[in-house]
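Below is a filled-in request sheet from our internal design queue. Each sheet records the structural input a requester submitted and the sequence that came back. We keep these sheets so that new team members can see what a complete request looks like end to end.

REQUESTER: design group, bay 2
PRIORITY: normal
MODE: inverse folding
CHAIN LENGTH: 377
BACKBONE (tokenized):
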């Protein structure tokens, strides 16, 4: 939880400072969205290497390497002198943090039977960064400049690295004697991706990741521009969103262990869609807060979708298989940043987030159909 917290601080420091970054570099929201998509694309591309390395060397060294690279990338990001440097360092940050999740999920799956609950708590530990990071990044940015705000990731990573090195247990390799070439055999990986249950879970995960990227990248900016609130108030509401996200991650994970993954995922997608619609149609009062509540509550889906993958992956697939599916869905989901930013520039926030609503309702509808028809997906 602490390790995931450090990787999230580094990434969450960026979103509240987007208006200042846009003003400094004189670029569009789409350009910043492109940089953030680059970060998440790099994050996605490191999922498979992270899984392969965890299978070959155990999870602990991969987790430690991820935290160290996160701290280094954050320090470099804080020195960005121009837009192109900002793009490059955000990509490096994505690569560093991308190593982490497959290894951590594999470790938790080995240790706990109720994987939905365990992974849900793990995700809530990382997402708890959202309670403090946006407001702190804005405060530091206002007082010392946005470059200093982006340095928060490096400040947090160092002590967490020491703590993780002390407390995270070593685990034996699980590659089963396979060579590196055998681990990444393209024919085996292709067969995995064409498994109907895995392919459908990837589709769901792409939609959820797209929603996550759109929200994470532009929620504070949306509040400032569409609602006309201050940056400080937008950061406070962003923190509230994360508070709900944190509370519901283990709850939805545990609920999925009891009643099934698909029922909980359907509930989450509909809740997020309702929340976004409310945020687009009201600008103040209880209904606005209700919109934040629905959106934040529905975003606790992380442990559920991870568990749905692990339910359909064999022990032989291991971290490598999970790293592969995360590479695919996180890479495609990373388009949420650039698509949302570009649509906001071209057609406004209702169109940008309206697309997210359509995707969520599509996911919810297909989940209902799968459950009703008892399809083997």
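RETURNED SEQUENCE:
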């Amino acid at each position: 939880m602490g390790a995931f917290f450090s990787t999230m601080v580094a990434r969450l420091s960026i979103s509240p400072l987007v208006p200042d970054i846009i003003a400094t570099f004189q670029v569009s929201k789409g350009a910043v969205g492109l940089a953030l998509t680059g970060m998440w694309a790099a994050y996605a591309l490191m999922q498979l290497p992270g899984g392969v390395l965890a299978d070959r060397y155990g999870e602990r060294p991969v987790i430690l390497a991820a935290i160290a690279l996160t701290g280094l990338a954050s320090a470099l990001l804080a020195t960005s002198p121009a837009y192109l440097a900002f793009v490059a360092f955000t990509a490096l940050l994505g690569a560093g943090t991308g190593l982490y999740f497959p290894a951590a999920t594999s470790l938790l799956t080995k240790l706990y039977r109720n994987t939905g609950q365990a992974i849900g708590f793990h995700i809530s530990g990382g997402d708890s960064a959202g309670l403090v990071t946006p407001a702190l990044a804005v405060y530091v940015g206002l007082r010392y400049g946005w470059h200093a705000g982006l340095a928060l990731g490096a400040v947090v990573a160092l002590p967490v690295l020491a703590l993780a090195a002390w407390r995270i247990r070593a685990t034996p390799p699980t590659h089963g004697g396979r060579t590196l070439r055998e681990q990444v055999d393209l024919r085996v990986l292709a067969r995995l991706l064409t498994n109907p249950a895995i392919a459908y879970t990837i589709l769901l995960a792409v939609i959820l990741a797209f929603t996550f990227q759109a929200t994470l990248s532009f929620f504070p900016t949306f509040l400032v521009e569409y609602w006309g609130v201050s940056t400080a108030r937008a950061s406070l509401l962003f923190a509230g969103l994360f508070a709900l996200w944190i509370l519901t991650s283990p709850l939805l994970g545990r609920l999925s262990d009891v009643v099934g993954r698909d029922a909980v995922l359907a509930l989450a997608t509909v809740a997020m869609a309702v929340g976004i619609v409310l945020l687009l149609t009201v600008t103040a009062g209880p209904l606005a807060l209700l919109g934040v509540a629905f959106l934040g509550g529905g975003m606790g889906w992380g442990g559920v979708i991870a568990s749905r993958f692990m339910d359909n992956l064999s022990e032989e697939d291991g971290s490598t298989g999970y790293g592969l599916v995360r590479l695919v869905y996180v890479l495609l989901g990373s388009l949420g940043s650039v698509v949302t930013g570009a649509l906001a520039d071209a057609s406004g926030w209702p169109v940008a987030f309206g697309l997210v609503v359509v995707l969520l309702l599509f996911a919810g509808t297909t989940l209902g159909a799968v459950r009703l028809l008892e399809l083997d997906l």
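SHEET NOTES:
- The mean pLDDT is 87.
- The domain at 2-168+183-373 is CATH 1.20.1250.20 (Growth Hormone; Chain: A;).
FILED BY: M.R.
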